[in-house]
Specification:
This protein has about 200 residues and is an all-alpha fold. Helix content is about 65%, strand content about 0%.
Length: about 200
């Protein structure tokens, strides 16, 4: 990019470029040079906006966490509509059908990034923890509405759904699972606590 030409929404442009590199080349291919090349800007642009590359990556993950938290409010609002299994099938497919699986791999593979994230997210695996909280919040609302058993152990069900969903979508180079397969997995986890007719 020529010197003196302003870049609009630099952070989001760099985040989008990082996600494209991550999806294409995996965590090992994600470097500051790869990101700025993908974004079509000089390498110095990234370092003008972030202290270092791990700081950039931490902000990328926090941006993704904010998106999951936004999605949590939407999912919770669907409680009482449709079916619990269909609502969760959609939520897991949207969550893991995006760049989330690649970002989780990035967090797991970079010690410096995890250390940065621990400063603001001291427990759990960032992004996975918030995804489990999203599912738990939704299940709690469905339990209040009587569509999930009153004695359902949401603190076990939510991470079980997230772990199972992550495994189903974990191969980012292969074909994603069929919606029917995701639905079967969700139903298998929840079968003992559902209090609504099976659709």
């Amino acid at each position: 990019m020529p010197t003196g030409v302003a870049i609009r929404d630099v952070r989001q442009q760099l985040f989008a470029a990082a996600e494209r590199v991550l999806l294409r080349d995996g965590p090992s291919g994600l470097t500051s040079r790869a990101v700025t090349t993908e974004a079509g800007c000089a390498k110095g642009v990234l370092h003008r906006h972030f202290a270092d590359f791990d700081a950039f990556l931490a902000e990328l993950v926090l941006d993704r966490i904010a998106r999951v938290e936004d999605r949590a409010a939407f999912l919770r609002a669907t409680a009482g509509t449709g079916t619990v299994v269909d609502n969760l099938t959609g939520a897991l497919t949207e969550l893991f059908g995006s760049v989330v699986v690649a970002v989780v791999g990035l967090v797991i593979s970079r010690d410096g990034l995890r250390a940065r994230l621990r400063e603001v997210r001291p427990t759990g695996i960032p992004l996975v923890t918030e995804a489990a909280e999203m599912i738990a919040s939704y299940l709690a609302r469905e339990r209040e509405l009587g569509r999930i058993a009153a004695d359902a152990d949401i603190d076990v069900l939510a991470p079980t759904l997230i772990g199972g969903g992550h495994l189903m979508f974990a191969d980012r180079t292969g074909e994603p699972p069929e919606p029917a397969a995701v639905r079967r997995a969700v139903h298998a986890v929840l079968a003992g606590v559902l209090r609504e007719p099976r659709a």
